Amino acid sequence: MDVFSDPANRDVYITGFLWILKLTLAGGVGALVLGVVLAAMRVSPVPVLRGFGTAWVNIFRNTPLTLIIFFCYFGLFSTLGLSLVDDIDLNNFWLGVIGLSVYTAAFVCEAIRSGINTVPPGQAEAARAIGMTFFQTLTIVVLPQAGRAVIAPLGSILIALCKNSTIVGTIGLMESSNAMKDLINANGNAVIPIFLVFAGTFAVVLIPTGYAFGWLANRLAVKR
Amino acid sequence: MSTDAVLYDHPGPRAKMRNLILTIVFGVALLGLLWWIYSRFDTKGQWAGNLWEPFTQSSTWTDYILPGLVETLKAAAVAMVLSLAFGIIFAVGRLSDHWWVRIPAGAIVEFFRAVPLLLLMFFIFFGVPFLTEQPMSIFWAVVLGLTLYNGSVLAEAFRAGVHAVPKGQSEAAYAIGMRKGQVMTHVLIPQAARAMLPVIVSQLVVLVKDTALGYIISYGELIQLGVNNLSANFGNVVQAAIVAAIIYIIINSILTAFAGWLGRRTRRKGRAPRAAGAATQQATIEPGLGGGGGTL
Hints:
The complex is a heterodimer.
Chain A: H1 7-42, H2 47-61, H3 65-79, H4 88-118, H5 121-129, H6 134-149, H7 151-164, H8 176-186, H9 191-220
Chain B: H1 3-6, H2 13-43, H3 49-52, H4 58-94, H5 99-114, H6 117-132, H7 138-164, H8 167-175, H9 180-210, H10 222-234, H11 237-269, H12 274-285
């Protein structure tokens, strides 16, 4: 553990995981908002909206995230000149957030749609029978029940998002995996401790998160 | 519940009108978005023929895209075979009656599920050579990373599958005098494997997508050859990325359709009792439940 007693190395480690944290939070919010909208589109009565939702899911779910992030940088930024902020690190960060959001939204959309499928048809039929519109049926009756059913899938999506945010390192952000690579290359004698610290941080945070979501899903499940 | 019909009534005159208006509004917005993308491409000269032309030449395909695709599929295939073996071994290990097998197997599976694959690949490719004092083969760095990660995910899926087999099956097997190993190999695993077949094929989609991480440690797969190297010669990075994305989408759509077909086929036969079917469906929705799983 000598490596981490050097403050410079400790800084590399902390900055790396701060980027991961920021990417996960920003990407998670973006993906959740986008995913809910897409799921609403996919179950809506308007064919154009349904088609758009389906196309989005099929395109982004089947493309590797590496390629999407790559495209965000070399396509959106370098070639098409989409510059979000002046600071290069922050710009890469927001490009990464765009990539993570559009990719993860496809999975959020599918999770919510399968959650909607767990709500018994009688619920929506009853809502329609008392004269609720599509929007009311969806937001007042179906989504609150579906939301409880999708806690566990959304939890695994959040965990996957956190792990996937390391891929933003492709476009030069010094996140944890790039930080680990640099530390390994500079300290060839301490490869295993470095790996264990970086991988261990993920494991220590993510494994309890997974069990917490499982517990929460169980507790909030609609008992039928 | 089938989402198409239950959430809304058959549209009457007013609803038809509203749907029409929504269709038009959204259609116009969509066209506006497409036009914006088009004009953005146009002002940057991305529609220029010489950027798209390489894709009509056979040399582009034989020199860049196809070799990359072959490497992608090769890594995915080898990693799939190895992860299946890894998954079965560790699933059986986690189900063992001996704590000194169960606990280490569980710890290894949980650990590799929670570690980002990229971090694992960096460690294998950049770190392991320091330990062995030999250069690491880049192909095996990618395959090993994919195996450890996807094997752990599959181990959890298998375990869920074995748990989903009704208890009566193993009780009956014990009753006719089978030993533990026999119950596992003759009764539980065949039924679990059948129920988990769609999950295994879906995991193949994840595997194909994850080979793209090989690009980051410059393994010569589809993105490395078909996008990076190709655009270095023709300056058409946007076009090359779009073509590569289409190839990935086609491959993965075929695999997804195959998984869906397998799922319907296993269900239609009705071999699995109803309770088991329900349980495996649960498992297909959330194979990452508990621990740091979660695969996209």
